[in-house]
C-alpha cells in the first residue's frame, strides 16, 4: 500500500501545511483518512479532486473534518450532475456535525453514506481496518490498516494509552501524532510529545516512525525530533505535505 500525506499540521493549518489528511492506496482503491482544513487543495494537487473511494474520520474535531464540508459542493454540484454517495466511516455524530457545519438547514446525507465507527475489525475496499478508542477528550479512533501482509497504524489524536500500543504492534509504519513539546507541563489525556510517540513506537516494535500533527506556531520540529530520537532507534522523520511512502 501507499501512503500520501496531504496535510499534517496539528490543531490548525500551519504556514507550510493544511491540517490532517492522509491518502492510503492499494489495488487502485483510495481511502482518505481525515479531511482537515486546507487538505482539499492538497487532494487536487497530489491525487485528484475525485480520488477518494471512501473516507474515514478518526474524530470530529474541526482540524480533522472541515474539508469534508467543503467537499459537499464538489460532489453535489458537479457540472455533469451529482456524484454517488461516498462511504464515510466516522463517529456516530458525524452526519449531524457535518450537516450543521454546511448550514442551509439541510443534510449532507445525499453526498455521504455514513457508517458509525465502533471498536473492531472490518473491511474497507481491499483494506482490513481495525479501529479502537484512544485517549482524547472526544470519541476518537486510532486506526490500523492492513493489506497484503503489510500494516500502517495511525494514532489519530491521543495521549499515551494501551489501545494505541495494541494498534501499533509490529506495524511496518507508525504514523503518530507528536503535538506537544517534551519538558513542559502539558495537559493530560489529550496529545503525545515526541518522546511519548517514540516510546510507543519502541514498545510496539514498529518498523518506521513518522511523526505528524506538530503545531508549528507553538513548537519546534528540531526539539520534537531530538526528543523522539532519544526513545526510538529505528527510522524516524517528521512528515510533509506531498510526501509519499510505499509500505
Ligand atoms: Zn487534531
Ligand atoms: Zn483532536
From TrEMBL:
Q: Which Pfam families match?
A: Lactamase_B_2 (PF12706)
Which CDD domains does this UniProt record tie to the protein? RNaseZ_short-form-like_MBL-fold (cd07716)
All residue ranges annotated as the Metallo-beta-lactamase domain in the record:
18-195
Question: InterPro entries per the record?
Answer: Metallo-B-lactamas, RibonucZ/Hydroxyglut_hydro
Q: Which SUPFAM superfamilies match?
A: Metallo-hydrolase/oxidoreductase
Alphabetized Gene3D superfamilies for the sequence:
Ribonuclease Z/Hydroxyacylglutathione hydrolase-like
Q: Which PANTHER family match?
A: METALLO-HYDROLASE YHFI-RELATED, ZINC PHOSPHODIESTERASE ELAC PROTEIN 1
Quote the protein name from its UniProt record: MBL fold metallo-hydrolase
Give the source species.
Micromonospora vulcania
Amino acid at each position: 500500500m501507499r501512503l500520501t500525506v496531504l496535510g499534517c499540521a496539528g490543531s490548525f493549518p500551519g504556514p507550510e501545511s493544511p491540517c490532517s489528511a492522509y491518502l492510503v492506496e492499494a489495488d487502485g482503491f483510495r481511502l482518505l483518512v481525515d479531511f482537515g482544513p486546507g487538505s482539499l487543495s492538497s487532494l487536487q494537487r497530489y491525487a485528484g479532486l475525485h480520488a477518494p473511494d471512501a473516507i474515514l474520520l478518526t474524530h470530529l474535531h474541526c482540524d480533522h473534518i472541515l474539508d469534508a464540508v467543503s467537499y459537499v459542493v464538489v460532489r453535489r454540484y458537479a457540472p455533469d450532475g451529482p456524484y454517488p454517495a461516498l462511504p464515510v466511516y466516522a463517529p456516530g455524530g458525524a452526519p449531524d456535525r457535518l450537516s450543521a457545519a454546511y448550514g442551509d438547514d439541510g443534510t449532507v446525507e445525499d453526498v455521504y453514506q455514513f457508517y458509525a465507527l465502533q471498536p473492531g475489525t472490518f473491511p474497507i475496499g481491499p483494506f482490513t481496518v481495525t479501529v479502537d478508542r484512544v485517549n482524547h477528550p472526544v470519541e476518537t479512533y486510532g486506526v490500523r490498516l492492513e493489506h497484503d501482509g503489510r500494516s500502517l497504524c495511525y494514532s489519530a489524536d491521543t495521549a499515551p494509552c494501551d489501545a494505541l500500543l495494541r494498534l501499533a504492534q509490529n506495524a511496518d509504519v507508525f504514523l503518530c501524532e507528536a503535538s506537544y513539546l517534551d519538558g513542559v507541563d502539558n495537559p493530560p489525556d489529550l496529545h503525545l510529545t515526541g518522546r511519548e510517540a517514540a516510546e510507543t513506537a519502541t514498545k510496539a516494535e514498529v518498523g518506521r516512525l513518522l511523526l505528524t500533527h506538530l503545531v508549528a506556531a507553538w513548537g519546534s520540529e528540531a526539539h520534537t525530533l531530538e526528543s523522539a530520537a532519544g526513545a526510538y532507534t529505528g527510522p524516524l522523520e517528521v512528515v510533509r505535505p506531498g510526501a509519499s511512502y510505499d509500505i
